[in-house]
């Protein structure tokens, strides 16, 4: 079965025709909490909840230094036979460089497919670790480098493989669907991997066949998928530290002050934000939405890195980040570890190529390939 990802997913939360679901929806764990990362000496941040260290983003160099870094990165990409793949959330210079060098900027599903299909010998993935791991699983013969191979994700961190495996063992009658934002070990335990661009379609397909779902790790995306599909879902309690901070009351008051503004939201955002949205979808779906939604101003509930591409794509329109109440201010600290200087460093050193245990990779590849086949555009 195939599906098209060409159009943004409309938000039926605004449609009176959407039936209310009566299916069970249970979140077995409380949301994990991550405290404000504290600066450490030596240019790192520490997340006090999990002790993970994150490099402080390097300040963007100006003028000549920036041009030099770009030129050096271009040169190294060519000499290392590498293609640059960037997620929409990373530094604007890195996104622009990916396009200028005939690489790619996209959402997590598109990046997975692109890396697998591209003929380059080596891949440079600018994003977070699960994206590099997925690229390596799908292309075991390519070297995969990342500017920061330790760039984490709170969803991945909040879903430890051993605990997750016990959770699956306790519910053997459920089909295990995990979000791409997980480790290779968690994927290896899953029947399906999904991203935000196909989660609703996959779960609806499974529910239509009578499957009960065990979902992990994002509780907000899980709850959104459940509302859209009416599926019977048992949901893990993880969350994204960036999206969970978007604040419904501040969003409402901004939309009231700026009459005619439209809200575009990523489904990792809380339900009270999503219910105000004119469109809910993946980063690529958000990028496409202004082509069909007629407005002068868009409020965007996802990482601020996407604003760069939105402003490039629609120069006559205005885009602002949705207000947040939290400490991360709408920017993912791990995505921010990808800058021009760290890109040049990894290309020069070719250090710390991404490795995935071959046994795990073999098992994790099955549910990832299942997702790629399900979403492959019809010829
Ligand atoms: P997309 O799949 O929409 O690119 O989202 C990935 C992500 O990490 C969202 O926070
Ligand atoms: Fe993970 Fe959230 Fe960062 Fe996306 S924005 S990589 S979900 S922490």
UniProtKB/TrEMBL annotation:
Molecular-function GO terms, alphabetical: 4 iron, 4 sulfur cluster binding; metal ion binding; quinolinate synthetase A activity
**Residue ranges, compositional bias (Low complexity):** 12-22
Q: What's in the keyword line of the UniProt record?
A: 4Fe-4S, Cytoplasm, Iron, Iron-sulfur, Metal-binding, Pyridine nucleotide biosynthesis, Transferase
Q: This protein's superkingdom?
A: Bacteria
Q: Where is this region: Disordered?
A: 1-22
Q: In which pathway does it act?
A: Cofactor biosynthesis; NAD(+) biosynthesis; quinolinate from iminoaspartate: step 1/1
Matching InterPro entries, A to Z?
NadA, NadA_sf
Q: Which cofactor does it need?
A: [4Fe-4S] cluster
User: Which residue positions does the secretion signal occupy?
Assistant: none
Which terms does the UniProt entry file under GO BP?
'de novo' NAD+ biosynthetic process from L-aspartate
Q: Known EC number(s)?
A: 2.5.1.72
Q: Where are the bilayer-spanning segments? A: none
GO cellular component, as recorded:
cytosol
**Top EC class, one word:** transferase
Q: Which protein are we looking at?
A: Quinolinate synthase
* Source organism (scientific name): Candidatus Symbiobacter mobilis CR
